[in-house]
Amino acid sequence: MRNGKFEMKENVIEVKSFDFAVRIVNLYKYLATEKKEFVLSKQLLRSGTSIGANVSEAQMGQSKSDFNAKMYIALKVANETQYWLKLLFKTEYLTKGEFDSIENDIKEIIALLISITKSVKMRNE
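The structure assignment produced for this chain is given below.
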């Protein structure tokens, strides 16, 4: 409690995956309007926004194994998202600066999800 008000502890992976989804939506709009790229960017939109959706769903998991399964799905989708970002960069839809900026975010999310899934798995053993 701070200044007479309750504060909820911030869930880092929820915040980072949501903020990342916002970046992905904005990147999709940029790719569709400025670069006229619709196929790869749609794949990126689906996978990039799915990370946070799975993280959010995991918070209401019915059990530890359900929680871990959803987090593992989020990890797999984050890995897929990294693939689409690399492909968009290598096909010159993203500049090096654009790619480097968003790749740092996805690498951080992947590292967090690996840590979460490993720690839950170790607690269940």
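Interim note for the steering committee: The chain has four helices and no strands. The chain has a mean pLDDT of 92.
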